[in-house]
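Researcher: Please translate sequence to structure tokens.
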Amino acid sequence: MRFIKVVQLSAIHVAVALTLLPIDSTLNRIMISELAIPASLVALMIAVPYFLSPMQMWIGSLSERWPLWGWRRSPYIVIGLLCCAGGAAIAPQAAFAIHEGVWWGIPLGFLAFGAWGMGFNFATVSYLSLATDLSGPGQRTRVVGIMWFTLIVSMIIGGIAFARSIEPYSHERLIVSFEQMSLLALVIGVAGVIGLEPRHEGNGGSEPRMGWRQTWRFVGDNPHAKQFFVYLIVLLIGILGQDVLLEPYAADIFAVSPANTTRYTSMWGGALLIGLLVTNRLSARFGVKGAAGIGAVVAATGLSLIVAAGLTHRVELLIPGLVVFGFGSGIATAANLALMLDMTIAGQVGVFIGAWGVADALARLGGTLLSGVVRDVVMYGLGSRLAGYVVVFAIEIALLLWSVWMLRRIQSEQFQARALQTSEVIGLAGQTQGA
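Model: Translation complete:
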């Protein structure tokens, strides 16, 4: 696979992430801490994209069966980019409308996050399927490494630039910064799409055409696929459950300013980048599964330091905790994404990438609801803000350690053998029905 193609894939990956960066690193903190919007409502809006996640399997199957204008993935990527950019651009206006109590504030908020979620589901399954299409099995660790290296460098730069763009802070500056970031993401993403995918003749592929029920059966009848699906959910809730809370945690417990909490995202991203860089060596020595397990244990250690910082009221432990957590998350992310791309079969790449995308989205949904709802319930029940955060982080630590135990049962070779068998059965059934 040519290096320029990997760079273009990375550009699409970066574009989708840039639309999420200001929401994930700044807006959630402002909504909870500055605007006093209940964390449960914020978590529910952020979770809207993940309620839509089952559509990823449909999108993956649709792109296999119905290319548009000769391209299987590119049109769906562009649709996703447009929705992501549009949703992100209006998100801060919705937040301020909710704070002001206008009747259309909450509906606009759900519309913004819903549009972003539609775009995320369209773009993610499409560009990961395209990455699998364009790369061979021996190239995927390299492709994943370059994609994530580019992503994290861009996120660090983007995080610093966004933090500076909102200083001195004002509602107007925040809105303009969101719009500028959304436009930049759209330009980068479209530039990545141009010329990336070869054009196919005809309107469909030669693989068996599965309906909605057959698509779910194709994945659900494979016990190894189900094991991997559950494993991904458990692991990713453990890693992603803190997304909504780390910035408010720093603000509520340590009184850190909005600009500094955004910079913390860049510190975490730098550690994540280092984790990505060492994953190839860890995979060569311990295997992809071994590297994934190491990443989960290191991430759990980082969360433990973050909890210790709050319990001891020592802010000097917070940044080391973020760094260790980011380092472990980088290893776990790269190793598990490479494993995810291996857990596919030719001709049905989109279906399985869609299934793993559903697992990822359900994990984000579970992690978001866990963080928002549990934090509020514990905080109001015990009358302690610190207790709400600590309980959430402790649950995440337990899930990460559980995922290490589950990982031992994942066998990609057995998965692929069963998937090929199921694909042949469905193909024969389709031919019989068509006869």
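Researcher: Any highlights?
Model: Confidence is low (pLDDT under 50) at residues 204-208, 424-435.
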